[in-house]
Amino acid sequence: MLVPLAFSASLAFGSVSIPLPQVVHILLGGAPTRASWADILFQFRLPKALTALLVGAALSAAGLQMQTLFRNPLADPFILGVSSGASLGVALVLLGGGVHGNLSFIASLSILGSFTLAAAASLGAGLVLVTVLFLARRVQNTLILLVSGLMFGYLANAVVSLLIYFSRPERVQAMSLWAAGSFGGLTWTHMPVFVSMLLMGFLLAVAMIKPLNALLLGEEYARSLGLNVRRARIWIILSASLLAGASTAFCGPIWFIGVAVPHLARFLFRTADHRLLMPAVVLLGAGLALLADLLAQMPGSQRVLPLNVVMSLFGVPIVLWIILRLRAAGAVS
Amino acid sequence: MLIAQSLTIGYPRRTLAFNLDLELRPGEMVCLLGPNGAGKSTLLRTLAGMQPPLAGRVLLNGENVHAMPAAVLARHLALVLTTRLEVEHLSVYTLVSLGRYPYTGWLGWLRQADHAAIRRALEYTDSLSLAHRSFHELSDGERQRVMIARALAQEPQVLLLDEPTAFLDLPRRIETLRLLRRLSRQTGCAVLLSIHDLDLALRLADRLWVLSAEGHLEVGVPEELALNGALQRAFRHEGVEFDPAIGTFKLHQASRGPIHLTHQGEGVALAWTWRALERLGYEVHNGAQPFLPSIQVLPGPRWRLSAPQIEREWDSLAALIDFLEAENRPSAGAQ
Lengths: 333, 335
Known about the structure:
The structure holds two protein chains of two kinds.
Chain A lengths: L1 H11 L7 H8 L7 H35 L12 H13 L9 H35 L3 H24 L3 H12 L10 H17 L1 H7 L3 H6 L4 H23 L5 H13 L4 H24 L9 H26 L1
Chain B lengths: L1 E10 L2 E11 L4 E5 L6 H8 L7 E6 L2 E2 L5 H4 L3 E4 L11 H6 L14 H13 L15 H13 L5 E4 L8 H18 L2 E5 L3 H7 L2 E5 L5 E4 L1 H6 L2 H6 L5 E3 L4 E3 L7 E6 L3 H14 L2 E4 L7 E5 L3 E6 L2 E5 L2 H12 L7
Parallel strand pairs in B: 3-8, 3-9, 6-7, 7-8, 13-14, 13-15
Antiparallel strand pairs in B: 1-2, 1-4, 4-5, 9-10, 11-12, 15-16, 16-17
């Protein structure tokens, strides 16, 4: 229920408010009262809301997978270094683009640049993914995978810092703009690539629901139940990385959702069963991302807040409150 | 049912046991005993197909366990491990239903037959009333029962358990072993468990496998292994000695020389006086001996100590113990 509500709200609100009946009217093919509204809706609001919905769902699903795989409640979709790889790719394009860049670079960014950025980020994320998968095939121990993921992260961040250190301020700002995260970068031209990547990720995620349940018992028990742990691990990592990698490539690294939503779902639905958790997490994540995007727009104002700021500023207290409240309720019953 | 042929177990650089020929029969409960590090867990893991043998093979109904697809093996063989589960929001029913993993479809939905198997497993382990509780709220004993139920839901022919009594208090340990014994009888499942509690194993196991620190394995009926000295041999180098006369480890090493014990009246008082003297470090002998210290248990009960130059009587065991302790304190310098 939350999802369609938030979805329509995010279509209606923005720097220009469009009345909700008009939104429905336009979407159903009717003529708008004001000509510009249809453009705003189709060219800007709709892809943005769709992106928020998809990314929220994707990051939450990936976060759930990583938390179960690593049996660690702090695991997030980026734990294997996917976002670090992506940000390295982006940094190489934005900051390492040679000395001949100038101020117009940033202006060009929003038009054609974002496809280049997405490609660079995908490449970076993909590179990390391939390395991690290669490791996953060889090592027995999941912990080693976790540690090497962290190490890749540090390595990539070090290179990014180095690039920042030697870069011009305006390029650094472009970089931090990317790092702030945004659902607004995608246009219809990006959509097919973006959606098909996520679709693959989601399909794999559904196929991995049963193995994830077995992994709740730990790897040894999972093996004794007949699960090929090494193979399942590879598919799970591939799924999570596709979901997180595509999201990061097109929207920047978006924190918080991937860690918080799985916890929220577990607390709300009181289950560890992934047959319930996976759909729950997808819906909650989509709803939360739409809400965050709505807040970032600051309805009634012209300014747009960075997405990651909104996520943490509003999300953290809300999630803490819900968890604490449910904990207390659970203790009584 | 489960047969090991000239099995050598261990790790590439460390062989734990050589050339084992073993057989687990349907409906029997076997306890695997042995000092820490002898390779009990490794043997269980190797039999379970989780770890490759260094040599030899393990056959389940004539098929090599290590060549079988894991999904097929899981329908015949189930495990209870020592790892403690730390999962929140997992109901007992859902946990036990994971035992149906080898039987369910790609998404793991349960059919009628699966629900029936889960119910049976819960009934066998007396945990039907726990079904809707959350696993992390259970006590250690309840957890162990549920983990056994989960293994049973696999409907195995062979059930292997690694120290299922490790975290439990004595009543819970007895309860768990009784449960496993009942299971082996009722379901015809072969049960093999590793255990440290020699006393319980001797009393409840159908057979014992005793693995020594040198990698020898002795197989036999408990009483037989006690009689032929196999238990003594297996634990010899552990600094403790198995006493076949009483069927348990000798706990006390004599440090104080001989004392003789005689009695008139109740035998129970004699038995406990014997234990008290052993605990103090005396080498206790039956019957009086002239010129040597001796204690007489009199009706009442009362205790009389007769030794050269000493002749005293007490009406409580504690008073006797206090006296003996005082006599033996180095500062007293009496002896």
